[in-house]
Write a structure and sequence with these properties.
By secondary structure, the protein is α/β, with parallel strands linked by helices. It is built from 20 helices and 37 strands. Helices cover 30% and strands 24% of the residues.
Length: 765
């Protein structure tokens, strides 16, 4: 009797679990079949009806991105609810998600589905099914078109949607349908790192949902050629009490990377506001930066605080001890300070970075007012000048003792050039020293793992970043630098990243590029070219940059394989006038942007020149900056006399020293001057003009100092069509060109071998 009862109970249980949907919609050859669920059209969700895989379905018009649905009799529905969606897997990349009405106000009315199974596109060209969880639906029709939820994230081809009030019976089998081993459609160069940033937990509660989403997306990330996933490793999520570490937030990520044969880029964050543990934030050791403008403390922690430095060492050591032998770390990114983790002082923020401890004081400015900063500055000036009389003479101000010396805002007419440079050099040098601490400690604890210093911004004195010195510090520990300031325009990206690329190549460091935020589909291609043309080892995208739209994915699939570890040949240098910039402000990069269509330069700062950088080039262009230390003008002058070609515009002004005395270069700029074995080409006019750019192109394209290939490359470039000369590599026996066409039309150019090169619109070849 008990066996009959067990069979009946099993049948009842199975029937109950395989419940009917509470609402559904499907497409048919005669129109929509609706049962409590309505497909809506309009706004940014205009529907088109098509056929895929032999079945009728709906998609969106080209200008639309969403499929909207309304739920009839939605009142009284309570979560959790589940959606199942049958969609056609048409092309590689992307994840289907739902955004649902969870209550009034944006973004609550567009809350993302909290969990899902399947939902990825792999280009399987067949109908598949996914499941999505809507944890707290309100369904009051607050979305566009009066919708309750919308589908997005893929080239959408949908034939059936069901709404259920319990987990679908096939939920686990859908999860198992995710392929474990797929072949990449994008194949980057050997040794390259293609990183996708996504799935960052802000709390322990985020981990289950984010790791489920990561698991769904990992195969698609591999298919598009990505090698690793970058996840923020926040101090407050690891050191739960002083000296007590809990790695349960990040261990599940490591387990997934091992399962799918993927790599991890942990971004270690210690000191930024969102990384601070409560026990530290509320304790006596806390010391934020204090701005000189207002005397107000920030939540961004001071790099001069000795207690913070000890916490950094402890955290790095603990992380290394736990994950050193995990086998999943591709590289490590070091988030040393600042609002977000770059090696710069506070400059923005009070966005998501204030989510842990509330709003904080932050702005671009000078942050050297805390007691540890004041003591450091005094000590540095005492070490440099030894007695107060020498400092007083140099600064042209009277001081009774070093106790009277304190940080000041180095702007305006109150301070002379030497005093201002002393402060700014110390301020920037302090950031470099702090970066060096991070790099050294990490290398000691992680001897075999590639490590990158994270830096950003556009290098005004206020940011405190000397990209050249940061690259030099990284090279000293066989490390690299990641710069995080790209957008979508290639010329802008080139201007902002080339200093890091040049300094890294000079000092033998590796480097990587990351966008500051959004990247449009054209920018996806531009960033691939910038990385390849610069010789980058790493290229980072945030997940929406590539996976957020079909056009972005298609652009990446078509061009991503051009991310190879190339060896650019740059025979022409561009002087980066760091001393002048520190005194007058950062206006250099905006002047550089139009120059990229003329030639492909190697940036040389004063520090790089001091370290022998002029030996790498055959010609040097001066674009701006008339003030430098005497030694810089001495070195450039000697380089010219030894055979170098210097290009100069009179509008730059006479090169003078910090003290206002004409430098050694000045006599070489005069008509008929004795320039030794070299020569100087002078343009009579302003340097920011089209006339100077034309002069540069004409002079360099005929310059006997350059190789024939370099001259041809300069001759071939034009507005919107860029070329980089690359050295021999695994696939090229000799020098070759790498082209990028940012225009709307195919471009025809003459290559090094004399043949016509056809570069597709918005393409690389």
């Amino acid at each position: 009797m008990k066996y009959w009862l067990a069979a009946i109970m099993l049948a009842l249980s199975s029937t109950a679990f395989a419940q009917s949907p509470i609402a559904q919609w499907s497409a048919s050859s005669t129109g929509d079949e609706e049962s409590g669920l309505r497909l809506l059209t309009g706004d940014d969700g205009v529907v088109a009806r098509v056929t895929r895989g032999g079945a009728p379905c709906v998609t969106t018009e080209p200008a639309s991105a969403f499929l909207y649905f309304g739920v009839d009799a939605a009142a009284g529905l309570r979560g959790p609810l589940y959606l199942t969606v049958e969609y056609f897997d048409d092309a590689a990349g992307g994840a289907l998600t739902a955004e649902y009405d969870a209550g009034p106000g944006i973004p609550r009315s567009y809350t993302k589905s909290e969990d899902g199974v399947s939902g990825m596109a792999y280009g399987r060209r067949k109908w598949v099914k996914c499941g999505l969880l809507l944890r707290n639906p309100d369904f009051a029709g607050r979305q566009n078109n009066g919708a309750s939820f919308r589908l997005t994230g893929l080239p959408l081809f949908v034939r059936k949607v069901q709404l259920l009030d319990r987990k679908p019976a096939d939920w686990e089998s859908l999860k198992e349908s995710v392929p474990m081993d797929i072949k990449p459609v994008v194949k980057i160069g050997k040794g390259g790192e293609l990183i996708v940033g996504a799935f960052d937990p802000a709390s322990k509660n985020d981990v289950p949902g984010l790791t489920r989403a990561l698991e769904v997306n990992l195969p698609g990330m591999k298919q598009l050629g990505f090698t690793s996933n970058e996840v923020y490793v926040r101090w407050n999520l690891c050191e739960v009490a002083p000296g007590v570490f809990d790695w349960s937030v990040y261990d599940p990520y490591v387990a997934l990377y091992k399962k799918y044969g993927f790599k991890w880029v942990p971004f270690l964050i210690v000191g930024s506001p969102y990384s601070l543990p409560d026990w530290y934030f509320k304790g006596s050791q806390r010391q934020g930066y204090v701005c000189l403008e207002h005397g107000i403390e920030s939540h961004v922690q001071s790099l001069w605080n000795p207690a913070m430095r000890e916490h950094v060492k402890t955290f790095i050591r603990a992380f290394a001890d736990h994950y050193r032998d995990s086998g999943v770390i591709e590289s490590m990114l070091l988030g040393v300070t600042g609002n977000y983790g770059e090696a710069i002082y506070p400059a923005s923020g009070n966005d998501w970075t204030n989510s842990v401890h509330g709003e904080y004081h932050t702005h671009a400015g000078f942050w050297a007012g805390d007691k540890y900063a004041v003591a450091s500055f005094r000590s540095a000036m005492k070490k440099k000048y030894r007695n107060i009389g020498r400092l007083s003479a140099a600064w042209k101000k009277e001081y009774a003792s070093f106790d009277d010396v304190k940080p000041f805002i180095p702007r305006g007419n109150e301070w002379g050039n030497r005093a201002r440079l002393d402060f700014i050099d110390w301020y920037i040098g302090s950031m470099t020293d702090y970066a060096r601490l991070w790099l050294t400690e990490t290398r000691d604890d992680m001897p075999k793992i590639p490590i990158y210093l994270c830096t950003g911004g556009h290098a005004p004195a206020e940011h405190g970043a000397d990209f050249g010195e940061q690259c030099k510090a990284a090279a000293a520990v066989s490390g690299g630098v990641r710069i995080t300031n790209e957008a979508s325009d290639y010329s802008l990206n080139f201007a902002l990243t080339r200093w890091v690329a040049s300094a890294s190549r000079q000092y033998d460091a590796y480097f990587s590029f990351e966008p500051a935020g959004n990247v449009d589909p054209g920018g996806v291609v531009a960033r691939v070219y910038n990385a390849g043309a610069s010789g980058a080892k790493g290229l980072h995208y945030y997940m929406p940059n590539v996976f957020g739209a079909a056009s972005a994915r298609n652009s990446f699939v078509a061009n991503g394989s051009e991310f190879q570890q190339r060896k650019p040949i740059t025979e022409v240098g561009l002087y980066y006038p760091e001393t002048d910039i520190r005194l007058t402000g950062q206006l250099f990069f905006e002047k550089v942007i139009p120059l990229r269509s003329v030639f492909d330069p190697f940036f040389l700062s004063d520090g790089q020149i001091a370290d022998g950088g002029l030996k790498r080039i055959k010609a040097l262009v001066l674009l701006s900056g008339s003030v430098a230390e005497a030694k810089t003008w001495d070195r450039i002058s000697k380089w010219v006399r030894d055979g170098g070609l210097l290009l100069y515009a009179t509008g730059i002004g006479t090169p003078v020293t910090v003290d206002g005395v004409p430098g050694a270069l000045a006599p070489l700029l005069a008509s008929g001057a004795n320039t030794g074995k070299g020569r100087v080409a002078v343009y009579g006019g302003a340097p920011e003009t089209e006339g100077y750019r034309t002069f540069i192109k004409m002079t360099l394209s005929k310059a006997p100092e350059l190789t024939a290939n370099a001259r041809k490359a300069i001759e071939a470039g034009s507005a919107g069509v860029f070329v980089t000369l690359c050295g021999p590599d695994a696939t090229h026996a000799g020098p070759y060109e790498l082209w990028y066409n940012s225009t709307e039309n195919t471009a025809e150019r003459i290559g090094l071998d004399g043949r016509t090169v056809r570069v597709p619109a918005h393409g690389i070849m």
